[in-house]
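Q: A small favour: would you put together sequence and structure tokens for a protein?
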Amino acid sequence: MNKLNFCVIKIGSNVLTTAEGKPDFGRMSHLSAQVATLIQGGTKVILVSSGAVAFGRQELKLSDKINPVIRKQIWASMGQIELIKTYKSLFSEHQIAISQILVTKEDFRDRKHFLNMKNCLLGLLDQNIIPIVNENDTVAITELMFTDNDELASLTAAMVDADSLILLTNVDGIYTGPPSEPSSELIERVDAFSDNLSSYISATKSSFGRGGMLTKLNMAKRSASLGIQVIIANGKKDHILSKIQNNQGSFTYFEPSKIKHATKKWLAHGEQYYKGEVTINDGAKNALTSQKISSLLPIGVIDVKGEFEKGDILRIIDQEGQRLGLGRAEYGSKATQEKIGLKNQKPIIHYNYLYIF
């Protein structure tokens, strides 16, 4: 495992709360001290922290008759204040300043907005300020919601070109069966050639968060494919971050592939943001999936769907409807339609803005 030089650390709700769902201030204090030690050792850290709804639930008891979405928005709005106040107090003990960043999926959809957010995060780090990122649960509902903060952490790590992503949960990592069963074994290392691990994982979700281990697995594999090393570890265990830094202890490590270009990292998470869809012929499919550097030319396109503008994300499928990848449109939808099948044209998607699954 490589040294942690620039990492995004996601702390899940089940790490920050007790079994009864109350804030675990002792655990937060311990983790904050570990993060401070990493920073003092030269590691740049962005925190992605769950817990706002759990904190809000402790602040105010609400009737079950209230709309569940409204109830969650109220708890998130109140709880985010308490969550950040707690972090500010804990990190001030180590003479470290913090900032709060609240985001929705919409913030990652537009490339310009995406880069503005990236510059903000890097600017904070340059001033030795820890950005603490969370989903803006007061406005994020249904289609605007992240799967959970594992997805947000994965997106953030790709955005800032972090070398490491640490997902802290309440188990040691991915097991060959339910972690509670004695026969289950911890899978310590995963690489690009590892077997499909999803069959080992049940789809159950945590008590106080939205996510489950399957989401963690999917986000970890995607991040690793972009060149980011990923660790899934138990945030309830003492000194876990120090142990990870020193390559000690028990956790699941995802070996990173070759580092991808920053734009491709953005595109890799664009599956839910695409505005249009292009169907390509077998010749174009073979070109895009080969080892040779290839852009998508109009001559290889046989159909275009959706309304989109230059710069929007397009999904690429083959003639059987199989998903092949994502890319940034070089033309709007009208111009793209006019160029279908034509020779000697500029690319519809340039290689530099193309991500193949």
